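Exercise 7. Predict the joint structure of the components listed below.
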Amino acid sequence: MNINNQQDSFKVFLSYSAHDIAKKQSQGICSTEATKKVYLNSLATYAVDYYLNCMSFETVKDRDSSQNPWMQTFINTADVEVKNIGKIECFPVSQNTKYCQIPQEVASDRIAYIFVQINPSLDEAHIIGFTPNVNVQSAPTIALNQLQSVDNLLEYLTQKEQAAIVNISQWMQELITEGWQNLENILNPQQLAFVRSRQFSITQARKIDLGLQLDSTPIALVARVASENEDTINMTIQACPLESTYLPQGLELIVNDENGVSVLNATSREHDNWVEVTLSAQVGEKFSVDICLGESKVTQEFIV
Amino acid sequence: MCELAEQMRQLALKAQNNPSNSVARRKALNSLVKLIQGSGLLSRQQSWSQLPNFEEIYQEAVNDALVKFCKDIDKYSPQYPVMAWVNHIFRWCFLDAVSRYRERTQICSFDEEAAEERLFKDLLEGEGQSKEDINLFRDFIESDPEGILRDLHIRRDRNTNLQRILIFLCEGREWRDISIKSGHPIPTLSSFYQRSIKKRNVVEYCRKYLQ
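Solution:
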């Protein structure tokens, strides 16, 4: 099994930069066991991050100011965030490992779990495969000989990446981004009456969940588009509640320009049925919309 | 040999002919990198082989070279063998890895260790010290001198705050246990914990009192 694993796997050397990071991150205050765990997690994370960069996925690095080795040691996580796609959890495994249990604390917001075989001298890692998001409620056990291949991982992530950016010119050609639907499929008739409008040629909506799986606030993000002239479009972006009449108070809709500078925003008050922002954009312009509620944030990127 | 060179050239062309970030390009690059790694045709950089820690620098440079190769695949001209181009990049990456190695701070002390056990022994030596650190840490979270840990809580549940979770964790309790005690599901607790510990003010707070 090991030989098969290695043939399909992707090799990454764990040289001094990998170990420098691992050492820095494992300098927390904890038991021997925990230190070792954090160290291996860090090496696995390095390997996955390296691999994703090779394959031209952009990963989001934790800034130094958010590194917390003191408290990180208490939680067995090793995540890599891929820009626009989400977080991936990395699992270091040894050459003899056949099964691996995904602990419940590895949270519900991971889009994939990648398994990284690390050799005993800790100088080589092999990305052996992955499993897409699983139901962590059951703390599932994963058989390492049944993982999906690295090739499938590329397909899986590329698909997610493409769905992450809404391309408005494709909408104009009736190519609707995955995950977006007609309003009628998402909102009930009463809500439709609120948000209906004739000024726009295209209206699409996407369901988003703010907050955690078990305690989430489902929201519809509605985007309406009308072309002003050949190079300019007008857009209204709205957030509406999906399971109640009113939006939770304090829900923020923020529009950021290409450089991440916020240019527009709207916040819901008590008993608001929706919040909206209106903007116009040139062909080729990129922007993103953050939907924030308390600690939760979902970002949607757009390109015109 | 020729066959391998041709296979590499075809994969490089395939990568070039597909748009960046497409599955086809990524798969071609993935196969190509694996072929290069397994080919034994990467330059041995023999003129440097006398360097102490040569192996480490070599591996670092291989990593750097392959990532650069993938990024710059569009610059490859197919009339040359792929390996000639890879080794050209590799040479520069090697020089760079040597100088970075020399600039590294001396804090990292396990350059020569190979075996896992020795590595960890080195990392963990002075356990008495670390016991003291654990006490220092416990005192810190229990007293929470500026109240920052207490103030971070799960929504309106002021009782389930970062301080309380940390105290449980310090006692060696499992997440399942904390979930039962607090009435929040594990994913909620764990997401809250992961987000909270990365907050700038929490990190600065730890630095201030623990470093």
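Discussion. Chain A touches chain B through 60 residues (CB under 8 Å).
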